[in-house]
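so i finally got all the pieces together for this one. its two components total, 1074 residues if u count the protein bits. some of the lines might not be protein, just check the labels. i wanna see the whole assembly predicted at once instead of chain by chain like last time, that was a mess tbh
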Amino acid sequence: MSQGNKNARPEARLAKGFRDIEAAELGGLNEMLAKIREVYERYGFEALETPAIEYTDALGKFLPDQDRPNEGVFSFQDESDSGEGGQWMSLRYDLTAPLARYVAQNFQTLPKPFRRYAFGNVYRNEKPGPGRFRQFMQFDADTVGADSVAADAEMCMLAADTLEALGVDRTNFVIKVSSRKMLDGYREALGLVGEEHNNTWLTVMRGLDKFDRLGREQVELLLGPGRRDESGDYTPGAKLDAQSIKRLGQLLTLRLHVAVQAGVTGPVFNPLINTGQKSENTVRRTLTSTIASIMRDHVEEFHGRDVREIRVLEEGLRELEEMGALIAAAGYDDGRIIIDPSVVRGLEYYTGPVFEAELTFEVKGDDGKPVRFGSVGGGGRYDDLVARFTGQKVPATGFSIGVSRLQAALSLINAKKTQALGPVVVLVMDKAEVARYQQMTQSLRHAGIRAEMYLGSSGMKAQMKYADKRNSPCAIIQGSDERALAQVTIKDLIEGAKAAAAIKDNKEWKEARPAQFSVSEASLVEEVKKLIARHQG
Amino acid sequence: MSQGNKNARPEARLAKGFRDIEAAELGGLNEMLAKIREVYERYGFEALETPAIEYTDALGKFLPDQDRPNEGVFSFQDESDSGEGGQWMSLRYDLTAPLARYVAQNFQTLPKPFRRYAFGNVYRNEKPGPGRFRQFMQFDADTVGADSVAADAEMCMLAADTLEALGVDRTNFVIKVSSRKMLDGYREALGLVGEEHNNTWLTVMRGLDKFDRLGREQVELLLGPGRRDESGDYTPGAKLDAQSIKRLGQLLTLRLHVAVQAGVTGPVFNPLINTGQKSENTVRRTLTSTIASIMRDHVEEFHGRDVREIRVLEEGLRELEEMGALIAAAGYDDGRIIIDPSVVRGLEYYTGPVFEAELTFEVKGDDGKPVRFGSVGGGGRYDDLVARFTGQKVPATGFSIGVSRLQAALSLINAKKTQALGPVVVLVMDKAEVARYQQMTQSLRHAGIRAEMYLGSSGMKAQMKYADKRNSPCAIIQGSDERALAQVTIKDLIEGAKAAAAIKDNKEWKEARPAQFSVSEASLVEEVKKLIARHQG
């Protein structure tokens, strides 16, 4: 590793694709994490923290959209092992692969099912872009050792409850559910099974996954000849025939189709269309009793075959039917959780139900037009991840929140909070008296008040500016005159700012709420407490 | 990167030197982090989170005890940059080097001084050992842009207040303070200035740093001919002459020496000797007014020179004198914070006062003999770190807690808490009724009760065992008979365990506190709430 000329100064710069998170954002993040944790624990999940570094072979490679074999993860060789040729290690790219390692390693002693939650940063060695970082936080819950779709349905309810706990209104989100088996069935029906079709199928999956963003027409280009975007970049297509493209395209809009056929366009099927022409109960009944049969009809129409001939497709439909029943029984079929076969999910390891948590309110898109905020998390069933290690199948399902993206959404939803108050700043008027100022500061702190003595070397004006920059409620001032009287001056910076903002000098108001007043040293703590209470109330 | 045979099963194993942290430990960790954060914020520090990955040149190399040039940090090349020859990136090895990068990068817009706290995992590419991990958490506070020793004194008070807030009694910890300038002065006095002496001096520093663990006699071997430990391993020495060794050895015990000369052996000087033969005020006065002059005498005696000739030594003494005065004025000179010239601190970047937070209670050492628990954190002044980037000197000081080590200590101090209650488990007695069980589970959750439906596929006995393993307060049971009556059975697992543990069948007690009872479905939530309140009270 070369660090260049040892005497040259390095440039102070963030590594590309990484970011610093500052106090205001961190405050919101911590509140948010605490609320998510509260819901996850209420659901019976237990905390687990695995390290950020794992052996590369233990993580496996399940990242979507990787063209180069080594792309996607940050990897390095462990030199402590044997000098040269040590084992390869990687930074985790998600929290699921390390969970599979943990479960396989501790299988004998774990309760079964094993239900854990985890949050932490994950790392992707990808080309960074706007809003796309190489380190980001995920917050996951997983149930390992449960093959019942009740476990999948529960994940969807967890997702819905979490979003509500975070203050997202029911009309502003939807959890969409499908099954990877539906897609596997289509693959079979389209005659694309077999390793020689892997690349074609991967291209198909990537294309389908872009439905939300691009719409059906553009996706059909990606399934066929390829697509040139507005910037002129060309993405090669899967080169399917017209018939196959049509069938897959119909799959994407099957949810709407089902809704129309059932005579409902209520929130269960499309939260964007909320006409209320059917009663809530009808909508629920429709979801739980007819969705599978309607889908069956359509699938048969598309493929010209009895669905039951394609076992995996039949399984997928039955899973969705069962999940629908559980969702309805728990009352989440009011538009919070819907069945939508257009859900794909990028990760390769999914084997059954997949879900996507989407925020449905609109924001301004890159082109200035309104677009739905979109996905803030998702998950699904991955029955083969533990078997990678043990050979023994351990069914598992999980849900993962993209924390930064969700936080960005919440900051749009929640009215901007007033900025938190900073610390009280004790000014240093006389350097020989630092011990005295320090004592005042400590007495404020010991009373539970955020406080600090000014520690720089600048004069009074700069100190006041510093206190303003920290959003201090007040500055504490003691010059030699005040010291002689055992007094301190409290300068109320919030009232002061208001007074400064007032157009004319309102003498009366100033007298009623003086921005500066003197008190005895002994009553400093009490007076500052009162002042802060005034500004927080 | 080779992953070996693609079909071979990987072994499920943690990477060497890393660990998983499970729910019980994480619970304690979160409580602890919240308390530390509370104190740091009270001191006016603001949160900041920098990424785990930085450019290698921006981090610099300041790790102690590294023999090979690339040892210490995990590094890899950024392939996204330009394919081959991308920039080197490293995982952060502490939180201070990234802070320096952040401050240099954002200098214009930051309040000055800039006071931030940060916590997070850091990574060391070292040979792991027992209790020595390659990923561990630090919790730091730093003041950047303050050259007054008041900032250093405040760090020591912060450390003391933090330990107290975490429940460590004043008699069980001490914050020890020295100055790197003292050592620099000794280096000069011993004629070891100049690059040709760098290696010798590094060996001296490493030796001195082992005083707490090995004692003066063994350290003197490391300063001289070298030392063979009990296992037979040989560590080469600095090969100093006998006179130099004696002088440095005396430095290590200067604190005790000062105390004796001042006629006090009270807690300010040695918290292990608390005879109280002088009044508290005398002890304070001694610290603040005579420590520097006593040290001066001794230093002169050792070196045969006027201390003032060695400017850096004089500065170091003056710093300690000023800090002592501030510490005494704030009342922390009751043994919580003491001056102790034996403090060295491993990191290379320190330039002034250095501090070490030590827990003084005894634990059983490796050899079975009692030893002090030792360091749980430390810090110091590093005035040159920001200047690495900007060329402009930005004085800074900080304190860092070794979170895992402190948590280990707290678990020794605090009486073992009763294990937290797990979730209520709703049993699945009849698979056709899963929707009903799920509904019960959701009703408990919506009432704020931790609950889950059993999601495995095993029978009743295994389900009860699962509930026990999760430390559930109760299991909820509804078979077909109860369903017909719209009832549920609540099985109190805590009373049940007590009953099972009772030697003889105490009929009366069982009737008073039945371990199993039936209630109506409608009153399930209310009854479970009562049961949990009973066990928590």
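Chain A touches chain B through 113 residues (CB under 8 Å).
The longest helix of chain A spans residues 280-303.
anyway lmk what u think
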